[in-house]
Design goal:
The chain contains five helices and ten strands. The protein is α/β, with parallel strands linked by helices and 172 residues long. The two termini are 21 Å apart. The longest helix is centred in the middle third of the chain and has 12 residues. Helix content is 24%, strand content 32%. The protein has one domain: Fe-S hydro-lyase, tartrate dehydratase beta-type, catalytic domain (fumarase, Alpha-Beta Barrel). Helix 2 runs parallel beside helix 3.
Length: 172
């Protein structure tokens, strides 16, 4: 039975997640990938994160673009995406959704900020059926790669990195 997570995710809920846990995520989720995440980081660095239109504390960020066809994960280990994970976690993001293995330094950063990474299967049609709302929050000029806020209903995922461990580690 998957663990039920509702956004925003509390410190306690993040602490309870373990590598390999199946989860279902309900609530509002930020969506961004390589085009928008560097812009988001710049706003955080400039102390202007409030301009994003969403509180990052307890937030989930899904490494995806939002198109009329739906949403599906992109590779989280792309430089612009993976390099955003530690600073976004420091800013309060508790769960990063995507696909692929992360570097050990990123797994350690997740642990440092009590954040986790979940692997979401590339199932655009399933996720579209579980996406209840969508709106552009920032950087609309990026089209489907803008920063979006979506409302999800029981998005399925598996915790891929938590508390200094990764599902991709060879010694599981």
């Amino acid at each position: 039975m998957p663990k039920q997570l509702t956004t925003p995710i509390s410190e306690e809920a993040a602490e309870d997640l373990q590598v390999g846990d199946a989860v279902e995520i309900t609530g509002y989720i930020l969506c961004g990938r390589d085009a928008v995440l560097p812009k988001v980081l710049r706003l955080i660095e400039e102390g202007r994160a409030g301009e994003l239109g969403a509180d990052l504390r307890g937030q989930v960020i899904f490494h995806t673009a939002v198109s009329p066809a739906g949403v599906g994960p992109t590779s989280s280990n792309k430089l612009e995406i993976e390099s955003s994970i530690a600073p976004l976690s420091a800013a309060g993001v508790k769960l990063h959704l995507g696909k692929g293995a992360l570097h050990p330094e990123t797994v350690a950063a997740l642990d440092r900020y009590n954040a986790v990474y979940a692997v979401i299967p590339p199932v655009t049609a399933l996720l579209e059926a579980k996406t209840l709302e969508r709106k552009v929050l920032a950087f609309p000029e990026l089209g489907m790669e803008a920063l979006y806020l979506i409302r999800a209903d029981r998005y399925p995922a598996i915790i891929g990195a938590a508390h200094g461990r990764s599902i991709y580690d060879k010694e599981q």
